[in-house]
Write a structure and sequence with these properties.
The chain is of the alpha+beta class. Helices cover 50% and strands 21% of the residues. The chain has 3 domains: 14-208, PAS domain (Beta-Lactamase, 2-Layer Sandwich); 213-320, Beta-Lactamase (2-Layer Sandwich), CATH 3.30.450.20; 370-534, Heat Shock Protein 90 (2-Layer Sandwich). It is found in: Cell membrane.
């Protein structure tokens, strides 16, 4: 019953207090066991040392020539005169001298002289001439005594000397020795209690001040949450080994192994390429377009920070064709629609003007207008068709040219423009997204700088080992506060909320193709974006 009540009481304590009590109980048991061991060892050592001391004194006294002579002659006064000084400086409880029959010739209690020595342990000394240590009960109580025979020159036993220490005296000495250990043992116990308390507090902090059952519930909740999300999730430790991977991630990466078989494997053995997992370990990554196991995904990486050091990472990713990516592509479709609308407006205005001139019978003016428009536009169109062999890209550039006209800007193509082929590391839509976003940014920057030049310069050349794309404007430039972050998603200098995606897409696609982006200031004002994308 008592044990059950103690168990119930212990179970109701907090985890921190249970740890403290358990360590304290264990420490106390260890201290008691250590005390018992030390007491036992000290007692045995004390008995041995005192026994040897008693034996040595008995042997030294029995070997005294004057004592041998006095014992032979039963000269009690002489024996007393010899032993009394020795008793004064010896720490022994008593010294007894007996004759060859074991009768006392000297004793601390004069009334005992003449009586037989008690204890029954004198025979070996009297009849065999041996010296030894024994524990017996005598007239003064139980004692530890050394016995040695008194022998003449021929070896004949004449008597016996017994030097004794009572067990009560030994216990007093033992108590003195053990009492000197009480203070260190008490200090040690206090230190153990302090360490137990600190350790229990440390454990509680490591558990985020939660009880074990709370941690177990949280672990189950996180496991369910990990499996319930529609994104792929992978958790890795500081050694880049998988600690968790959900079902969505295994399905998207075409992994047939169950989670237990994947846990503990290095991430580069499961997912390739591994640059996304290893590069810039101190930085978080968000919505980067990367390739996992030959599948293009949009991935993010968050570090697990413990003591200001990354101790692992959680990677989330989704298919590049999910709803978020479709919304981004929709913005590209909107750009195409704007381009077509610009061309439509441009030709509608011209047709209206020509129709008006014909109605007024100004045939010469109408003909001149037709020729003027045809010559200027046809020159640009011919240049694009002749130098840009990629039809998708050519169509984009023609649309952007008319869009610039509609906005009151001038898109000028560098004479060095020439595109015969594009690297297959990017799709047609991705190339169109890169160039279209760069030109749109140049248009927006130019429109926000009314006093600047309205000209935007464009160069696209694929003749070397890499494709060079350069777009330069004379607009408002890049705000110094966001210059280092312009390629992050959502970062923009525009007040319109639908910006902050274009340059993020450009950066993602260029990284995907292994290219480089260089951003320079245009003199006297504006910005130059230069892209270097290697051929396959």
């Amino acid at each position: 019953m008592f044990t059950r009540k103690m168990t119930q009481w212990f179970a109701r304590r907090s985890f921190q207090n249970r740890i403290f009590l358990l360590i304290l109980f264990t420490s106390t048991i260890v201290m008691l066991a250590l005390s018992w061991y030390l007491t036992s060892i000290t007692e045995k050592r004390l008995h041995y040392q005192v026994g040897q001391r008693a034996l040595i004194q008995a042997m030294q006294i029995s070997a005294m020539p004057e004592l041998v002579k006095a014992v032979r002659n039963h000269d009690l006064p002489r024996i007393k005169a010899l032993i009394d000084p020795m008793r004064s400086f010896s720490d022994a409880t008593y010294i007894t001298v007996g004759d060859a029959h074991g009768r006392r010739l000297y004793h601390v209690n004069p009334g005992e002289i003449g009586k037989l020595m008690e204890g029954g342990d004198s025979d070996d000394a009297l009849y065999k001439g041996k010296s030894y240590v024994s524990v017996r009960k005598g007239s003064l109580g139980s004692s530890l005594r050394g016995k040695s025979p008194v022998q003449d020159a021929s070896g004949k036993v004449l008597g016996i000397v017994s030097v004794g220490y009572t067990l009560e005296q030994l216990e007093n000495w033992l108590s003195l020795q053990l009492s000197s250990l009480l203070i260190p043992m008490g200090i040690l116990l206090c230190l153990l209690m302090l360490c137990a308390r600190l350790f229990s507090i440390h454990i509680k902090k490591q558990m985020f001040n939660m009880e074990p059952q709370q941690l177990a519930q949280l672990l189950i909740q996180q496991s369910v949450l990990f499996e319930s999300v529609f994104e792929g999730l992978i958790a890795i430790d500081s050694d880049h080994r998988i600690t968790a991977i959900n079902q969505t991630a295994r399905r998207m990466l075409n992994l047939s192994q169950p989670e237990p078989m994947l846990i503990g494997n290095a991430i580069n053995q499961v997912v390739t390429p591994e640059d996304f997992f290893y590069s810039s370990p101190q930085e978080n990554k968000k919505d980067e377009i990367v390739t996992f196991n030959q599948i293009k995904v949009i991935a993010s990486r968050m570090a697990v920070i413990i003591d200001q050091e990354p101790r692992g990472w959680v990677i989330s990713f989704r298919s590049k064709d999910d709803i978020n990516t479709l919304s981004l592509q929709l913005s590209q479709i909107q750009q195409y629609a704007d381009n077509l609308r610009a061309v439509q407006h441009e030709y509608r205005n011209r047709i209206s003007t020509i129709a008006g001139l014909l109605y007024l019978k100004r045939y010469d003016n109408a003909l001149a207008l037709i020729q003027q428009q045809s010559e200027s536009h046809q020159k640009v169109l011919d240049f694009i068709v002749e130098n840009v062999k990629n039809h998708h890209l050519a169509g984009l550039l023609i649309g952007k040219y008319y869009r610039a006209k509609e906005l009151g800007l001038e898109l000028v193509f560098d004479p060095a423009c020439y595109v015969d082929r594009l690297p297959s590391s990017l799709t047609q839509n991705e190339w169109i997204s890169i160039i279209g976003n760069l030109l749109d940014n140049a248009y927006n920057a130019s429109l926000r700088q009314p006093s600047g030049s309205r000209q935007i310069d464009c160069l696209i050349n694929s003749e070397g080992k890499e494709v060079i794309v350069e777009v330069a404007d004379h607009g408002c430039g890049i705000d110094a506060n966001i210059r280092e972050r312009i390629f992050e998603r959502g970062i923009t200098s525009s007040e319109n909320g639908d910006h902050g995606i274009g340059l993020w897409l450009v950066k993602s696609y260029v990284n995907q193709a292994g290219g480089v982006i260089v951003v320079d200031d245009n003199i006297p004002e504006g910005t130059i974006f230069t892209l270097y994308i290697p051929h396959d």
